[in-house]
Amino acid sequence: MSETSKNGVLLKTKENLQKSILQFFQDAIKKQIFDAVLLPMKVPSGDSFAWIMIKDKEILKDAQPLAPIMPVNAAKALKRYTRKGKGKFKIAALMRPCEIRATIELTKLNQVNLEDITLFSYDCVGAFPMQDYIADPSGGDEKFGKLIADKNFNFKDVKPVCQICDKFSLSANDLHFAFSGAELILVSNSEKGEKLLTDLEWQAETDLAKWQKQIEELKKLKSKNRAETFEIVKGMVEGFDNLVETFANCIGCHNCGSSCPICYCRQCYFDTSVAKPNSDIIMLRAEERGAVSLPLDRIMFHTGRMAHMSLSCVSCGLCSDACPVNIPVARIFSYVASQTQKTFEYEAGASVGDALPMKEYKLEELGELGELVKSAEAQEENHE
Ligand code: SF4
Ligand code: SF4
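# iron/sulfur cluster complex -> structure
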């Protein structure tokens, strides 16, 4: 948090938080602070939401900044916009804190360019599991409206990863909508955020102490829930036999990888022909082991993904939403991520400035392998 953000700007509220946040973005477009806003909007069928880049103030009226579900992680939507470099427009993007964290990770992986993007976030009450929402969208909307109105951050019907999320508030965003009792406070959290308040000629005069205390108390509660859940998940994944049993129902659809914002590789090994051997090779494997299960390599897919992206997993829960056989993929990956990130003293999505351990490393950290790299480099120099 920047120095001046001990105070925030008290925003004028309309009849509900959704409308108040929309009003902010409508005014910002009118004042040409932004050219467009990236927000969720209901799809025409009414049973899901999509990320829409909105330029027209009239269309903005129909957006729903706080959506009850998260069909796509917003980091993926932003990646589509900036993957080939920054655009020509000033964009505001409003996301859940886990989506901000995914955006920060993708920025470090050169998948997102934040130069002209201002990231907004808000205190997140969680999202409903997709399957529950699709079964009863209007009931889901009503329930979610009540959650926001009551500022209920501890609701049992939100996704299991949301129930144990202790990073549901301020993250590495530029500006944050803080829900403090009946008040809506805009908190600046970066130089870009400070500049926006200056451009708007707004003074941050509202003390944030009460809101910060509420958030800290909730974080403590959620951290406790998280630790308890992780104890259970640990028993599900530690040891090969447990891992095999946990993923026994996996049908190898790879939906969990396709929906994950961090699984960004354009060419995944598991989609290559090498990972899809012909019948002779399958029979050879069956001969060596006595039998093979098909589809092949389901455990390898999950352990491969764990090795590949658990340093950057942000516990968004998209993988669980996408799993057709209800494997608790998100809780499993969140647990594994907590262990990997602890080992590397790294926190996914905390700051663009934190180097990604697997991308930037010191040779000493690699032990014997580091020595081999050093000697190979020395040999190369001698050849030059
Ligand atoms: S592994 Fe699952 S919880 Fe983690 S970032 Fe990917 S989709 Fe989100
Ligand atoms: S989404 Fe579920 S069934 Fe599909 S690969 Fe992932 S864990 Fe297996």
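# post-check
Residues 209-237 form the longest helix (29 residues).
The mean pLDDT is 92.
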